[in-house]
Specification:
The complex is a heterodimer of chains A (555) and B (682). With 555 residues, chain A is of the alpha+beta class. Helices cover 29% and strands 22% of the residues of chain A. Chain A is built from 16 helices and 23 strands. In chain B, α5 runs parallel beside α7 (140-153) and α9 (175-190) runs parallel beside α11 (220-234). Classes of the chains: A alpha+beta (555), B alpha/beta (682). Chain A: InterPro entries: FAD/NAD-bd_sf, GDP_dissociation_inhibitor, Rab_escort.
Chain lengths: 555, 682
């Protein structure tokens, strides 16, 4: 990165807030701080917006994964002597989020030809729920003017048989479902109605059936059993609607046993999402051009409000007050020193352990959130990306597929989610689809194994040409794999550290609910309990005509 | 368009609507001037356009436009190039009006009128409709118009059926779509279009509507479709003869006015002062065209060549389930004691047609024997009071001749029942799964009733009745707002159960000693609220319905042999509720004591009864001439009692029954022998 063209020095060199990294959480913070009148400098070491939430072309994605999967050699440019005696500089190190990166191309010719027509997410599979907090924030901030969405047309539950069954997530879907018996339809709709009446209830209303306090505190899976829902329906509710990861029936391996209360909240989000926008086909929508559009929309909003943007600009060191140990500013890769009241950092930025030893207790306290935590026994998320020719389900382009725990193989401990996206979303060329896979795992091997199993269920691997005749006979109409990426990502939580805060990595969820909620919470801690975007109202006319698109507006 | 809460109007909205009213008023008055003076200038027509754009409900303006169109068409001649722009302009105005309010009757009607002129392209209409029906998928105006356009364009019914499929899949809570489906299927099934055989299609449709009912048992749109399907399954198109009196193979003893002493106990004895007896035909649906041309009678009884067949119905129409002819049996020459065979044949020549237009097609004949007996005059027996408390002898349950009194559904033989029974059986199995919901219970009860009605096999006949009664009991407890409906259905089921076999019926049958061993049916103290199964009770001469919860005598009109009727301790609220008894010419004894007559004002909307205002033959009426005030006051009693030949009447225990009313009754029914257990004048 040292061969970058020299930047003209930044002016001014003093800000209320410096944000490093342009992921969703960082961008929301930058937009919120700018709109509340703070002066903000927003930096990103990469040449694109979005950090770990970016959507990239295949070559860019490949190089990003590779460069972030190994710890870069400790770049030790000679530290220029600080020109002030009151400051001490602490070198920063880059933590890599990814491991076990494996990228294979099966038809490089075609991919080469179209390589720039891909917008592939780093944080997939990921969608936006219509009633998601991220949508509310976009509306509040006006960021919705910069993004357009389209609906995910269908969601399915799969199993080892290869059959994909529609998720009966609405009245019409239950009515149409071919895989449910009449009684199952009855029980499922009754359960949905119970949830809806629970959501609509007011405290003085005693006529509607309510779920008892005791039930609310019991495990959700037990509550579903109590509602006489058969196993197949329970599984649909738990993994394809509430979008849970862990096997709720297996006490040993389940790291998160959901309570009924939380389960109802998750269903509520889904149900509210279904009805929020009249032109959306279902609960889930996806931004045209990929997930990278979301952080970028917030950045554009921030820029309108005066936030200063510099890409391709890593920071190399933190500047602390020698005496008090308090934070003062950062040193850019260009060598310039920039000062601010507060600092928000990307999850990849850490303090080198060797530099800690020489610091005082106060200085250590300031840097608390940047000290790498021991990562023992922490879960990771395995992600996979496949580019295929054709579609996993004929006549459906954009679809979500969930494999509940144990549905593919007996040792499958967590749900595997698959998202197929087509050219309608401008993420790939016309006759292809991009598939995203993810599953939680304890170690890389376990995660990759689960992803490969799901891939094998949906996709046909290319075979050497000599076998092509046989292949035509044996393989049914499964789509053909053209390109594949497999990687395992660490899950890093955001942390509030007073003056310096660290933002989370992309989480294991399908939506942005937790990401945005934690970003909002962190922001409120950092900037005081100010409400985000309080004075913003999106009076500007929203999205233009967009064929088949979803119009996001407040009604 | 549905389920949106109404919002209170804001002040600025009110101001806007006031301004609109001012504008409308001035437009309206200018428009009316043009209209009255028949001015159809460009300017005048444009004014009406403006008016309709603001208020599509201004139907006078639509009519004005029709006149204006006719006017300009009459002037330009038949050149289609000139006609089309005029009509296109009308379509445009309608479209704008519909954008304003797409439930405007006037606008839709105007569009139909324009389309009927035949110059406009119909292709656009379906596209327009798709747009409207996307906005509001249940709008019945749009559906109506759709049927009109479909007929005009000869679009196939199959395509339209597919359209209802799509709409229902989109949101099955769509009454209009289900309704249109039933309309289309009726036609496709009636024409036996490709693959539209009822035995195949009806079960498929049941399968579709199950998805809706099971998904959301509280959504009523599916219920109606299910009811329609059930109706298609149960009801055979051609009318059938359900029963008759006298029934096939039975013997009847006929005697004169005095009635017999000591007749044999195993046959029905019928006495008449007029020397005739009723021949009753009971059909499963209302039919017309019963006449000597369609019903042939071979009999040695003379004088019955040109029988008059009378429909027994409260409505004055010429269709009825029940038809009666009175056969004479006293001829000029004494015939002594003699058996006569009577053979009745119907269906050999066409003419009996159901109200839905289907022919009675299966020829049918039945034979019975009449035994005419001379009698000794015995005036004493007529004078004795019928007490309802004693003098009853239990029917001999072992007696085989009960079977000859009423026909068990053997007349339905030969109808293709197989698929229908299979469909009902699978429905029963299906709805047993939904028995925890109200609609599930109700549907199950209806299905079980339908199954009973279809079952011919005596071995399994009647097995469902206990379950049906229990279901209605449950429903009464569960759903109090529809209690009366369930109660009525419970009564119907109960009466079906009683009449389902001769064994169960005989438990309620008696002979009344004091009156020539009349056949008496006692259905008292059973909390009945409705009368049913009358077709199996045509032979009954004495009927005890006391201590029930009846509101009316509807249905009893078919019981032409009935001479004594006890309705005491019921819930009769007015004499209008007894209106059907006017058809029962034999009725001599009527007990309506301890009811609610006079307690409430007469609900004239409920009973189709003669109204005092519409009757023109009043002036010729003696009683009315004498006492117009009382007739006006007791008009409902007057119209019923005047047509009956009662000898004994009990009205005690009713609000109405005071001295004034008693004296009025004696004026209206001068032949009355007993009033409230007393001889009048004593």
């Amino acid at each position: 990165m040292s061969d970058l063209p020299p930047y003209p020095p930044l002016d001014p060199s003093n800000y209320d807030l410096i944000v490093v990294g342009t992921g969703v959480s960082e961008s929301v913070s930058a937009a919120a701080a700018s709109s509340s009148g703070s002066s903000v400098l927003h930096l990103d070491p990469n040449p694109f917006y979005g950090s770990h939430f970016a959507a990239l072309s295949l070559p860019d994605l490949t190089s990003f994964l590779h460069s972030n999967s190994v710890s870069p050699p400790p770049s030790s440019p000679p530290i220029p002597p600080s020109n002030s005696h009151e400051l001490i500089s602490v070198d920063l190190v880059h933590r890599s989020l990814y491991s076990s990166v494996e990228i294979s191309s099966f038809d490089s010719e075609i991919l080469e030809e179209h390589s720039r027509r891909f917008n592939v997410d780093l944080c997939g599979p990921r969608v936006v729920f219509c009633a998601d907090e991220s949508i509310n924030l976009m509306l509040k901030s006006g960021a919705n003017n910069y993004v357009e969405f389209k609906s995910i047309e269908a969601s399915f539950v799969g199993d080892s048989s290869g059959e994909l069954r529609n998720v009966p997530d609405s009245r019409a879907a239950i009515f149409k479902s071919k895989s449910l018996t009449l009684l199952e339809k009855n029980l499922l709709m009754k359960f949905f109605k119970l949830v809806q009446s629970q959501l609509a209830k007011s405290d003085d209303d005693t006529t509607t059936v309510k779920i008892s306090e005791e039930d609310m505190e019991s495990p959700f899976v037990d509550f579903l059993t109590k509602m006489r829902l058969p196993p197949n329906i329970k599984s649909i509710i738990l993994y394809a609607i509430a979008m849970l990861d862990y096997d709720q029936d297996n006490m040993e391996t389940c790291r998160h046993l959901l309570k009924t209360k939380e389960g109802i909240d998750r269903l509520a989000l889904y149900i509210k999402s279904m009805g929020r926008f009249s032109n959306a086909l279902g609960a889930l929508i996806y931004p045209i051009y990929g997930q990278g559009e979301l952080p970028q929309a917030f950045c554009r909003r921030a820029a309108v409000k005066g936030c200063v943007y510099v890409l391709r600009m890593p920071i190399t060191a933190l500047l602390l007050d020698k005496e008090t140990g308090g934070y003062k500013g950062v040193r850019l890769a260009s060598g310039q020193e920039i000062f601010s009241q507060k600092l928000i950092l990307d999850p990849c930025i850490n303090v080198g352990l060797e530099s800690l030893s020489s610091l005082t207790d106060q200085q250590n306290e300031t840097l608390r959130v940047l000290v790498p935590k021991a990562m023992i026994n922490k879960e990771k998320i395995a992600r996979g990306i496949c580019v295929i020719r054709g579609s996993v389900k004929s006549d459906v382009s954009n679809a979500l597929i969930v494999y509940p725990p144990k549905s593919l193989f007996p040792e499958q401990l967590t749900a595997i989610r698959v998202l197929q996206l087509g050219s309608g979303l401008a993420v790939c060329p016309a006759d292809m689809h991009v598939l995203y896979f993810s599953t939680l795992c304890k170690n890389d091997d376990q995660g990759i194994k689960a992803l490969l199993s799901a891939m094998g269920n949906l996709i046909r691997l290319p075979v050497p040409e000599s076998d092509s005749v046989v292949e035509n006979v044996t393989c049914e109409a499964k789509p053909l794999l053209l390109w594949r990426a497999l990687y395992v990502q660490e899950l890093v939580k955001g942390e509030f550290g007073g003056v310096i805060s660290s933002m989370p990595s992309p989480d294991e969820n399908l939506n942005y609910k937790e990401t945005v909620e934690s970003a909002v919470k962190l922001y409120e801690q950092i900037m005081g309990s100010e409400e985000l975007f309080k004075e913003e109202t999106s009076l500007e006319n929203t999205t233009e005509e967009n064929e088949g698109g979803v119009e996001i507006d407040e009604n | 368009m549905h389920g949106r809460p109404r919002k209170a109007s804001k002040p600025e909205d009110e101001a806007a609507s006031a301004a609109k009213a001012v504008k409308l008023r001035s437009l309206q008055s200018q428009f009316m001037t043009y209209h009255h003076e028949k001015i159809y200038t460009k300017e005048a027509i444009e004014l009406s356009t403006k008016l309709l754009e603001i208020n599509p409900e201004a139907y006078t303006a639509w009519n004005y436009r029709k006149l204006a169109v006719e006017d300009s068409l009459s002037r330009i001649g038949p050149d289609p190039n000139l006609v089309k722009p005029i009509l296109d302009e009308e379509l445009r105005v309608v479209e704008n009006a519909l954008k304003q309010n797409f439930k405007s009757y006037g606008a839709w009607h105007h569009r139909k009128w324009v389309l009927s002129k035949g110059h406009s392209s119909t292709g656009n209409e379906l596209k327009l409709l798709d747009k409207f029906q996307k906005l509001d998928s249940r709008n019945f105006h749009a559906w109506n118009y759709r049927r009109f356009v479909v007929e005009l364009t000869n679009r196939s019914e199959q395509d339209e059926l597919q359209y209802t499929d799509d709409m229902i899949n989109n949101n099955f809570s769509n009454y209009s779509a289900w309704h249109n489906r039933s309309v289309l299927l009726s036609s496709l099934l009636a024409n036996r279009a490709d693959g539209f055989m009822p035995e195949k299609r009806i079960p498929d449709e049941f399968e579709i509507v199950h998805q809706a009912i099971f998904t959301d048992p509280d959504d009523q749109s599916g219920w109606f479709y299910h009811l329609w399907l059930l109706d298609q399954t149960v009801n055979v198109e051609s009318p059938l003869l359900t029963s008759s009196w006298p029934s096939h193979g039975s013997s009847v003893i006929l005697s004169g006015a005095g009635c017999l002493n000591g007749p044999p106990s195993n046959v029905t004895t019928f006495c008449s002062e007029t020397g005739s007896f009723p021949l009753i035909l009971y059909f499963d649906q209302a039919v017309g065209g019963v006449s000597p041309l369609t019903v042939t009678i071979d009999s040695e009884l003379k004088g019955n060549e040109n029988l008059v067949w009378e429909p027994i119905s409260n409505k004055s129409s010429q269709v009825s389930c029940v038809w009666v002819a009175r056969l004479k049996y006293f001829s000029s020459q004494p015939c002594g004691s003699k058996d006569h065979k009577v053979k009745v044949r119907l269906g050999n020549s066409p003419g009996i047609v159901s109200s839905r237009g289907y022919n009675f097609s299966a020829p049918y004949e039945f034979v019975f024997t009449v035994h005419v007996q001379d009698t000794a005059e015995d005036s004493h027996s007529q004078e004795s009071i019928v007490s309802w408390t004693d003098g009853f002898e239990l029917w001999d349950a072992q007696s085989k001749d009960l079977n000859s009194l009423f026909t068990l559904d053997q007349l339905n033989n030969g109808i293709d029942l197989k698929w229908r029974q299979a469909a009902i059986d699978s429905e029963i199995e299906c709805f047993r799964l939904l028995a925890d919901s109200k609609i599930g219970k109700l549907t199950l009860a209806r299905l079980l009733m339908a199954s009973e009605a279809m079952t011919l096999d005596a071995a399994v006949k009647g097995v469902y009745y206990e379950e049906i009664l229990q279901l209605y009991n449950d429903l009464m407890a569960l759903d109090s707002s529809h209690h009366q409906y369930y109660k009525n259905e419970h009564s119907v089921a109960f009466l079906h159960k009683v009449t389902s076999s001769s064994e169960s019926l005989s438990r309620h049958l008696f002979r009344y000693r004091d009156m020539n061993n009349l056949v008496c049916l006692r259905l008292n103290k059973l909390s009945l609220s409705r009368i049913a199964s009358v077709e199996k009770l045509l032979f009954v001469q004495m009927l005890d319905l006391s201590h029930n919860e009846l509101h009316s005598t509807e249905g009893l009109e078919a019981m032409q042999l009935l001479s004594c009727l006890n309705l005491s301790h019921n819930r009769i609220r007015s004499f209008s509720a007894l209106d059907s008894l006017r058809h029962v010419k034999q009725l001599k004894v009527l007990d309506v004591s301890h009811n609610h007559i006079g307690k409430h004002s007469v609900d004239t909307t409920r009973y189709l009864c003669s109204s005092p205002l519409s009757n023109s033959d009043w002036s010729q009426d003696g009683v009315r001439g004498q006492n117009p005030g009382l007739v006006t006051k007791y008009w409902d009693a007057y119209f019923v009692l005047r047509d009956l030949n009662l000898k004994q009447l009990d009205i005690a225990g009713n609000e109405i029954a005071d001295d004034e009313f008693s004296s009025f009754v004696l004026q209206v029914v001068p032949k009355l022998v007993w009033l409230n257990g007393q001889k009048p004048g004593n």
